[in-house]
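Hi everyone,

Forwarding the result from last night's run.
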Amino acid sequence: MSKNEGTADRVIRVIIGLGLLSLLFLLHGPEHWLGLIGLVPLLTGLVGVCPMYAMLGMRTCPLHQK
């Protein structure tokens, strides 16, 4: 798959992902596992490919704009 996320999009995803992952350490009880949701934006931001963007035909990466 080709990259479909721009730099700003990727940075925002990594920050949000890290913020959500911090819930694993900040929350107590069974709800702290919700922090694992942060893996999705973190991984897509690090890799630069969003499967949802691919399905919708979207790109925020300026190198691949038509």
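The chain has a mean pLDDT of 90.

Cheers,
N.
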